[in-house]
Structure of Membrane transport protein MMPL domain-containing protein:
Amino acid sequence: MQERIRKLHHNRIFALVFWLVVVFAAIVTLPNVNTIIQYDGQPQLANTSQPVKATQIRNHWGRNLDGTYTVNAVFNNPNGKLTNKQQAAINKTTSALQKKASYYGIQKITTLTNTPTSKPQLLSKDRSTEIVQLSVSHNQGPVRSIAKQLNSQITTAGLDTYVTSPEIISDAANEHISSFTLMVILMTLLIALVAMGILFASIIAPIITFLAILISYITTLSLATNLAYHWNFAYSEYTPIFLLLGISLFTLLTSFWFFRELRNRIDDGDDSQAATSQVIHDLGYRILISTLTLTLAFGSLMLFNFSTIRAYGLLGVGFAITGIASVTLIPVFAGMLGTSLFWPKKTRPVLKDRKLWYHLTRFGLWQPWIAALVVLYLAGAAAFGGHQSLNYNNAQDIPNNQAVQGARVLSAHFGQGKSTPVTLYLQNNQRLDNQDQLYQLDNLTKKLRAQPGVAAVTSVTQPGGQPITQYYVANQLDGLNTSLSGTIAQLSALQTDLKSDQSNLKQKTLKAEVKRLDSLSAKTSKLISESDNLQSTIIAAQSRSNAGGNPSKKARRYVQRLNAVNNQLTSALTTLSTLSTNISGTSSDAGTAYSNLSSYQETIKSVNASLKKSQKQVKTLNKSLTQMYTYLGGLQTSEAAKSLYLTPTQLASGDFQQSLVNFTDDKVKTTTLTITLKREPNAQTTAKTLAALKQVAQSQLRGTSLKDAMLTFSGQPVVAATIQQQYQHDLIRVLLLVFGITLILLVLFSRSLLQTGYWFLTFLASAAASYQLTRVLLRWATGNDQFNWQVPLLAFVPLTVLAVVELTQLAISYRLNQAALLDWLLPGISEVGQTMRHSLFIIIAGVLGLLAASSQVLTAVALITVLTAVIFNLALPLMASSFGKLSVVIPNQKPYHFHFRRGSRGKRTRSRRSTHDTSASDDESSQDK
């Protein structure tokens, strides 16, 4: 039994069983990768970020809109304006959709019909495109399935219809990445298989390499997806691709080292198991160094908060698994198969002596300054020749998609920022449905709309993006001035009537005068009612203006005088009515008639006195009212008249209540302002515009009744700006950390800081040059040279593998060398160059699978990697030899002495030189002796 176990251990069967168990468990527990990409692929923003805070507000929005997102159903007539027939068809489609609202999870539908105040935001200026906004619940199902269902439901004959929103476009980007991920994986594995077959002219060796890549990849991918699925660990939409890219390249390189050394030993007559053990012993240190460097470099990325960068930290685990598989899994098959591993090639391939690195190294040693300056000039010109900002919009990489096309239609007919609005949430501790709060919100709306880069702003007071005229003092003053003009005319007529009544008051006309005064009394009552409204409006307008207190006092005097006139007229009317009644009974009794006539005479005098006093009051009142009319006319043209003032009637109107429903929550303590930018999100202006808007909003509310309100911005531009801020903040630190760890480990392994620093700087210059050259090539091929923000991170993986693998080999060669630096440079670099061409071939072949995807992101990554590998392998021997020689020659150069031959100083110099020459001659004489 012990002998059998020893034999199994000798043949490494236990290692094979271990890996079989591991890969079986990985396959069984592997979640659906496409689902993980869909739900967890987007960057996870911090809980303190603006978009996350806005999402929390939206999830508790109330009015049956909690946990919803807005979808735009777009109806477009490509031939011009929407006809009446097409408009009727849109209304019919909307009505049918309304009936199925619960089935599709639609909580609210906003149309031109039910929200006419939002017409400028729902109908384009050219009247060719109409929007129907749908509030859809997140719990209804996947975004892509809802989009497909809604798109089929809104199809209308004669119109182009689209269903679009930032959420749908983001999901479409993830779907596009998922669609080519499997193809990229298969093509990369296939190319890796072919590359190993070409290198070794074998069939079995590539298959073993393929199995090693597959087992390492599936194990790492299963671990990454399970961490994301069960523990919400960081995950990127490109996680399956960059894991495959790093693992396949590293496995190909380590397998190449192993198989090449194994072939040499087997051909020398060694036993397969003994040869395998010896190869592991010889290459173990080199593989360990490379594995440790890559594991520490990429594992350090788990320290970052930005989720997309933290997701790359899983590569550290992947490289550790790959390194272990290289020294445990591949030797299992190598020991068992022996020479059969290289079937059908029976003889060792004859390796030709490659002279490229030899000649480049010789030139660097011959003319070190020229070699260094030429490389630095070419690489520097390419690296720093142009700097373009990155693109943070994933929609540009999506092919023909109805949501993207719908967004382009909105941009064409409404403005570039229409499909990606910015929402400002304002939370207050008091209700927002009173005049004071609404006045501040309206001022904030106008202030934001006046900012550069802003096309429109909609709010509770401006639901259509434009001020509603009847809500402003200027419009109200216009109506008041009209009423006031009529009131002045009525008072003039009243003044004339009172004068006539005073002079023509007789018994025979008494009844007619009573009727006349009754009419005058009704007029004054109407004037009093109008004056009350006038006084309230004038006081409200004055409180928002910079005028003094005189107009308010005039208004009060006017009302007081008008009340006095009314009292006088009421008294006269009462007296005349009594008089008329008394006169009716004069025919019954003569004595009574005398008494009544005496009373009549006194009453007539009293009425005349009262009417005279009333005439005087009306005259004064008419003068005051004329002054007030002049004041209101000036106030109407002032800045104060541009202020919002909602009367209680307007606050209770149906239109304004609908606006409250659309723009506030159920407690009316949170409101939204929708900001449409002039341009779609871009790295150059969006972040600056959003920062300016936030500053303006805070400044506008400072010192007002909304000074304590909390402001939160959301929307796709805000998400892009947040990603840009975090990414730009972390990218430099990522480069410094990873490259710093790599450089430190290389220095430790080579035991030379100076030489390793030269090599590493050569790599950085090559990578920067290839980055800019790729821009030039893409601009020439596609017309677009702006990289997606994921490109530097994805290219970071193969470039780091390239640097570690090639520089590790050079560092080990330098460390094991016992000769002086100048003696090592030519033979040492030339010897390393004999295998560099194979590494170059593997690196290029390993990234060609990325070209199988119709993705500008992966195409750019492939080009950057290929160009870097080529430039680096041409520049490294030149820079290593030239800087290596200069580092020895320059310190050994004697300092240059300046000689002065004029005057006394020249004599002293010659005297010193003579003394020095004499002593030098004496030294030489003593040495000869």
About this structure: The CA atoms of residues 112 and 119 lie 6 Å apart. The chain is about 70% helix and 5% strand. Confidence is low (pLDDT under 50) at residues 545-551, 582-591, 900-929.
